[in-house]
Every structure is written in structure tokens, then in C-alpha cells.
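Per reviewer request, we include the raw input and output of the structure prediction for the construct analysed in the revised manuscript.
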Amino acid sequence: MILIWLAATALMTAAPGASTQSSPAEAAAPSAAAQALAAFDPLIGKTWRGASLNAADTIDEVRFERILNGRAIRSTHSVNGGVYAGETLITWDPAQNRLVSFYATNGGFYTTGTIAVRGPGTFEFDQVAHGLPDLPGVRATTTFENGVYSIRSRHLIKGEWVDTGGFDYRVVE
């Protein structure tokens, strides 16, 4: 997995007499990127464990952390001690004006897509699967309420969106 984070800087010049300083309100206002990434704050720095809604013996552990000086979120997860595992990188795409993600797995496939923030800990993921010809798309909705982080997923199977289950997670550390 290769992720290249390009950063650009620009020198700004002002016309004579024009101010280049922003007002205190502008300086204090968080960017759209910072606001979107802040929605992950209830999940950050914790390990969450949950059982599959479809099979109680399928246990997933996921951990969220801020990386790249706070400009991205990484989540790693492991099902049943690594039988299946993956890592997600989430960052802001200024061209799309939204969060984007890249998910790599030990199952030999990956996904790319977008994330819509619906509230603290609450998101809608819309992903394109790569390397799984029979599964071109994945959609997931996550919620965070009363200390429970829940995910519900749907897969695009033969042109139809099919509910495929999910997990309800609680903090383990």
C-alpha cells in the first residue's frame, strides 16, 4: 500500500495597503477538514471489540488513531486474531471537499471511497472494492450512541444492495 500525501505551499502577496492578516474569528474557525476528522474523536485512542450480528463467535477488534500530525485517521482491525484483518486510512480530499478512505486487507483485496459525516462517530462509507469481481461495492453506516460503536454493511451483489450484517463494539481499553 502506497499513500502519497502531497503538500503545497504558496507565497501570497498583497496589494499595497491591503491586510494579509485574518480576523480572530477566521483564525479560530476550524477548517472543513478539521471539522470532518473531529467526528472521529469519540473513537480515537481506544480499542473496540464486537461480535458479528451473523455469527457470535466472529469477534472483531478495531482501534482508531490520529496520524500525520492530525491530518488523517488510521483504523486497524482484526477478526478472530488475524484470520481476517485490515487497515483503513482516512483523510480529507480538498478536490472533493470530503473525507476519502483507502482500506487494505489480508484477504487480497482493497477498497477506496468516500465518507459522509453524519455526527460524532456517525458516518456513511461508500466504497468501491478492487480485487473482488463478484463484489464491486460496499456501503457501511456507523453510529455511536451510549458508548456503543455500531457498523451495518451492505454489499453490491449482482446489481442489488444486500444487507450483510455488522458489529456492535464496546471499548476494551
